[in-house]
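Deliverable D5.2: sample structural annotation.
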Amino acid sequence: MTPSILDEPEDIYREQVVFSIAMNGYDYDFDANSFEFTFVGTGSQFGLGPTILTILLVGFLLVAFVIFV
């Protein structure tokens, strides 16, 4: 069964899941009958961190320029 996720693909950068096989209602050994799948979304790896840091740095530089010049 596929789980429902509230996140949009553009909010996800990379997500790794493990698939395992169960036939006829029986569970098999996860190590022998499973594989990993990596979903690559369209989201950014960095998020808002670098943007906020850049805005703060430019703001500090402008304040320093106004005070010292």
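Annotation notes: The first strand starts at residue 14 and ends at 20. DSSP finds one helix and four strands in the chain.
The annotation will be released with the project's public dataset once the embargo ends.
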